[in-house]
C-alpha cells in the first residue's frame, strides 16, 4: 500500500481502505489469568481466594479475585502482599502443567480449523475465513444475523458486517468448547487481521469477546497510549521512532512516509506505517511441533563447576523427561550459558553444540531417563569447558540445555500434521532416522551480535522453548513462548522484510523474516543462492530426492530457534581445524571437531561407528581428506573476492 490509500479527513483522522482484506475473519484467543487458572483447576480450593503465581520474587500473574484487590501482573511479591495480605502464592517456575494445558487449547482449536497459530502459551490466532464462507453459503438471504459478544465502539447505525458477525459466533463456540472441554475461560477478538484481532480481544475482560468493525479501526488505533502499545512495535523500534519525534500512533500515521523511508528504509517504513493504521496482511501460519526443546534457569551468580554440573543435571532431568514424552529422537545437544555482564545483561548468550550418540538418543526415546541424563551430563560439561575456563574466575547468570534436530519416523512433524504429532506423546521406541539434515552444517545465531535489537531478543527467547527465567523487578519475564516480541515475529512486523519475500531454501522462513534487511538481502543474493545450489548439487544424492525434500521441509518447519543453512564457506571453515580423523569416516558437518576430541573415548568410538555405518549423505568436499595446510587452497574454496560476501554473512552467525 502507498500513501494514496490513506485519505486524511478534516479532523486529520485517516480513513483507511484496505484492499482485499475486508473479508478475512481472524480470531485471537487469550486465556484469562492463564497460570492462575491452571493452578485453580489443579486445586479448586484456590478458586475463590486471591491467588498469585510467583516466579522468583515476581507475581507473573494473579487471578481476578486478586486483581480486584489491587494485585497486578508483574508486581513484586512484596508489593502484592502489601496490597493484599491474604494473597495465596503458588510457585509457577515449573511450566509443565501450563505447557500441557496450552497445547490442549491449540489442539482443540485445531479440531475446528487447520489455520491455528500459537502466540505464547495462552494466545492463539485462528483464521476462520473459510468456515465463515461455508456458513455464509448455508445461510438463506432472509436469515437474520447478529453479533455474539461485544462490538467495539458499537453504535446502532453501523452497518453490520455479516462476515465478522458469523466470525463472532464461531469465536463463541470455540470459547464454549475451551471452557467445557478443558475448563479454561478466555477472551477473543474478532477482526479482519491479526493485529486488530489481538488489539480488540483484550478490550473486555475476563471471559468476553469483542468484534472490531472496519469503521472503528481508527478508533482502536487512536486509543493506544503510545507506539509501544502497537503489537509488533518493539522497544528498539519505538526508540528509533521516538528519536524522530514520533511518540503517539497518530504521529506515526501522519509522518510523511518518504521521510520515514529515508530514516528506516522503505520496507520498514511502510510496515510501521501500516501497523499504525491497523493494517496487517500477515497470514495465520499454522504452528508445527517445536523444533527444539530446551529448559533453562537464571540465577544471580554461579561460579563453581560443581554448581554448574548440578544445575545441568537438574535441567537435563526434566528436559529428557519432556523429550521422551515428545517421542522424537534428538540428534543434537546444545548448551548455552550467559555470563554476567553489567552492560548487556540479558542477551549475551554463548552456545556450543554436539551430536548426541544414537544410543543415548534411543535411551531418551525408550524412557531410560536416568541413564540418558548420566550420559548427557559429561557431554554438557565438555561443552561448558569449551566456553569457560574454569581455572579462572567465572560468573554465570543462566544455563540453558537444548535438544534440537529432532527426528521422528512416519509422517513428518511438519506442516498440518505437525502439532498433532507433538500431542501424540508416543512412548514407543523409534528407530533413529538418518537424514540429510543430520549431516548439514548447522549454524546457530550468535545472539550477542544482535544485542541491540528486539529481533535478537526474540531469537534469544526462541532458543528456549521453555524458560524459567525471571528478570528483575519490572521486566517482562522471559518465557520464550510468552514474550511480547513473539507477536513481532508472528506478524513479521519488527522484522524488516515483507512476508512475501521468500527465504532461500534451508532457511527457516520465520527466522528469515526477523533478520536485518541487509542479511536478508545477502541470503537472497545470486551469489549466495548459487553457492547454495552448487553445494546442493554436489552433496545431495540424486536418487533420494523425495526423502531429502521431506527432511528439508521438516527442518525448516522445526527450527524456529535458529537458522540452518548449508553454507559451503562454513564447511571449509570447519576443515581448517586440525581434527582427530578416521581415514574412512568423515565427520558430519554439524560436528564441532574440538568438542568431538574432548568427548570420552567410548562416546567418540560410538559416534565414529555410527557415522561409518550411516555413510553420510552430505560429505564435506573431497579436500577434507587432505592435510590441514592444503585446505585453504582447495579448489572448492571460493576465490577471495567471492568469499568475502559470504564471510560478511558468517559474521552474523556462530558455528554451532
Ligand atoms: P498474559 O496473557 O499476559 O496474562 P494472563 O493470561 O495471566 O492474564 P490475562 O487475563 O490478563 O490475559 O500471560 C499469560 C501467562 O504468561 C501468564 O498467566 C503468566 C505468564 N507470563 C509470564 O511468564 N511472564 C510475563 O511477563 C507475563 C506478562 C506473563
Ligand atoms: Mg492471558
UniProtKB/TrEMBL annotation:
Origin superkingdom: Eukaryota
Q: Is this entry keyworded Transferase?
A: yes
| A Pfam family matched in the record | UBM
Q: Which processes are annotated in GO (biological process)?
A: DNA repair; translesion synthesis
The segments labelled Disordered in the record are 470-507, 538-656
Q: Boundaries of each UmuC domain copy?
A: 26-234
Cross-referenced PROSITE patterns, in alphabetical order?
UMUC
Which Gene Ontology molecular-function terms are recorded?
damaged DNA binding; DNA-directed DNA polymerase activity
**What ranges does the record list as Basic and acidic residues composition bias?**
497-507, 538-554
Polar residues composition bias: residue spans: 611-632
Q: Which UniProt keywords apply?
A: DNA synthesis, Transferase
Keyword Transferase, does the record have it? yes
Instruction: Name the family the entry cites.
Output: Belongs to the DNA polymerase type-Y family.
What name goes with this protein? Polymerase (DNA directed) iota
- Source lineage: Eukaryota, Metazoa, Chordata, Craniata, Vertebrata
